[in-house]
Amino acid sequence: MVIARNPDEGSSLGFLLWLPLGDGLLFRTSDTWPRTKALYCHPADLEEWPAEPDVVERVALRSCARRGAAIDVVLDRARENRSQVVYTRGRGRDMVFWQSPRTRKQARPQVRTPTARPGGLDDDGIEIVVDAHERYPYTFGKQQARTVRRALVAGDYGVLLGDTLVASVERKSLPDLVSSVTNSRLRFALGDLAALPRAAVVVEDRWSQVFAQRHVRPAQVADSLAELQVRWPAIPIVFAETRPLAEEWTYRYLAAALAWARDEQAVGTRLPGAVTELSGGGTSEPSTAEVRAWARGHGIEVPDRGRLRPAVWERFRAARLSEER
After folding, report:
1. DSSP conformational letter for 105
2. What tens digit of pLDDT does each residue of 246-256 get?
3. What are the structural domains of the chain?
4. Secondary structure letter of residue 278 according to DSSP
5. Which H or E run includes 181?
6. Spatial distance between the Cα atoms of 323 and 321, rounded to a whole number of angstroms
7. Could you tell me the CA-to-CA distances from 133 to 103, 150, 152 in Å, in that order?
8. pTM of the full predicted structure?
């Protein structure tokens, strides 16, 4: 096995991995070994191998054999000697990942999610509203839930009590989380979620992976997440390790929130701050278009489309409360 530096300085995959299988296999990859996570590999033509390679590592192999959709690679050294190059499909396209036994175990934790129905729910389970703009959504196929797709005012997955949105969960992959933190999109999303009775953010990865980022300063991301959690303490940011575990957590959280809302309704307690705007459904508050018109009538600058800033909603509610008094 030979690893050399990628001569293409503009590529985010800084290394070339050559394996002696058949006439040879060449991949572009981002690191020299999958130590903390599975590495994405991009298949390359053998002609991309430079005439005078800058070799980082050259290791003899005990074995290099194809087994189904994977290539088992065993290096002739004592440590970090076993790995796999796995061919798979994700998001509708072919992908290749380079993983070690350690990273494979981290990616597939040895746990089995429960199948028991959450307490306080009917035998029919719950109906979960999936935001119409959500790409590659959870299906909740292993949970006792059914889904419908509608536009949510906040979050990606929610539950309704009547026409009222009583809880919502914002889903984030780790790259999306880092991006939304650095460009402040997460700050505005949390502001929208704060208007709901119950809300949360679930991340499909481990907290430790925040500190494995290379294109941003990990400390900056960690500090921003801490500041957001302090500013909105009622909205937990949960790192659920994997996508299946994040899906299970979302299901359990929404089920608990729905049971809570039903109990509150039973005792006649009014849900505080409930925003219920859904595409095609009833609302207990004015629509975004009505609030946008009110804001412009009072000299407040608002965008022509999309969500309004939480501060605009707060000013609108304060004005309406003043008028009622």
Report:
1. H
2. 999 999 999 99
3. 2-107 (no CATH), 126-266 (3.40.50.10130), 288-324 (4.10.320)
4. B
5. helix 174-182
6. 5
7. 32, 8, 9
8. 0.54
